Amino acid sequence: MAAAYTLLVLLLAALVAGFMLLVMGAIHFDFSNSEIPPGVNQPVKLRIMHVILISRAVVGKILENIGICSQVSFVRYMQGRKTRGVDPKLFIKDLCFEQVPVRIYQPKAPSARQRRGVVFFHGGGWVFGSLETHEKLCRSIARESESVVVSVGYRLAPEHKYPAAHEDCLNATIHFMKNTEHYGVDPANVIVCGDSAGGNLAAAVSQALAGRSDLPKLRAQVLIYPGLQALDFNLPSYQQNRGVPLLFRERAAFYVLQYLNGNACNLEEVLEGSHIPIDIKLNYKKWVSPDNIPEKFKVRGYKPHVLLDCTTEVYETVKRFCEPNLCPLLAEDAVVQQVPESFILTCEYDVLRDDGLLYKKRLEDNGVRVTWYHLEDGFHGILNSFSSDCLAFSSGKRGLDNIM
């Protein structure tokens, strides 16, 4: 009996050791393929954040391989393990707008006039993120700006493909705009806001509402390191920051494919640029081109990319990349001219930096007022690090202060 017990203990120890070796091996592989640029402040913190994210992904993959749960489900579970708690300055309530889950943050202090309304769309590559992951950020926006914040829990990919997330965000925004009086919000002072994939959704919602006469005009759009196009993954920022945490070049393409098709087929073609026919690329070159990126953003290195054609079969799977609801940078001038005043935040060490720069130029060229704030030492996801006291970055707080 004792021998059997000892054998069981040794077997469990071996399994645990093997599990840890697999995790450490995967972390080492991802770690060795990443880089922390010298311009990033507090690089150790960024490394720690990166290791945490890799560890979750690796453990999730192992659990998926042994049939316990999917990797996506595990990562979402780990992200959402937060207790909300009471906020002394805010009323917080979960509701549904047009069957879309939302969380509303209302300042408790009385106001002599109607408040600003902020409709917030969380980031996470359309695959991850939730009301919980951006809870602290939304609380901060509501408190510091004395605004009513509506955080939207839109449907996620790969279970719900494009345009599910866009439709949820649009429907929730319209519902709020039609019912602002219930929340003490000025109908002429409603802003859409989002980070990363949420910035994409905010831009698309803003365009969808442009020119509508049955609703008040949006006061502004706030786009925090948004992803706005999927035609060119070889822009200068994609080349310079391809291995910079927290968003690698390959993962950016992976996420948008998950959103579009629910899978990552044709990832290699998307990365090399052989997913869109040359004639269509040339048609959009006036808007999506390294020529429109200021030269100072190319000094860290940029190699012009050769245009590649694609097969009909590949294009058929990704042709909706040319739809503005998915890639707002491709909207026609007549639509762009009608979007509201805009705030765009970009980070130097972010693969999505140039998407923001290109959209800034498009807006300005079409007479839209733009306030642009660039974090010279910033990286993708830096504002959401604000949700962790020990892993917060001073530059992330600086960016948030400029938004509010």
Account of the protein in words:
This protein has 404 residues and is α/β, with parallel strands linked by helices. It is 41% helix and 16% strand. The protein has 14 helices and 8 strands. The protein has an 8-stranded mixed sheet, sandwiched between helices. α1 (2-32) packs across α2, α2 (43-65) crosses α3 and α5 crosses α6. The termini are far apart. Keywords: Hydrolase. The active site is at 196, 350, 380. GO terms for molecular function: carboxylic ester hydrolase activity. Belongs to the 'GDXG' lipolytic enzyme family.
**What is the total number of structural domains?**
2
Q: What proportion of the residues is helical, as a percent range?
A: 40-55%
Strand order of the largest sheet: 1-2-4-3-5-6-7-8
CATH topology of the largest domain: Rossmann fold
The number of helical segments is 14
CATH class of the largest domain: Alpha Beta
Q: What's the average pLDDT?
A: 92
Largest sheet composition: 8 strands, mixed
What's the Cα radius of gyration? 22 Å
The CATH architecture of the largest domain is 3-Layer(aba) Sandwich
Give start-end ranges of low-pLDDT stretches.
6-29
N-to-C terminal Cα separation, in Å? 67 Å
Order of helices and strands: HHHEEEHEHEHEHHHHHHEHEH
Strand share of the residues? 15-25%
CATH H-level homologous superfamily name of the largest domain: Alpha/Beta hydrolase fold, catalytic domain
Structural class based on helices, strands and sheet pairing: alpha/beta
Please count the beta strands (DSSP E, at least 2 residues each).
Answer: 8
What's the overall geometry? Answer: globular
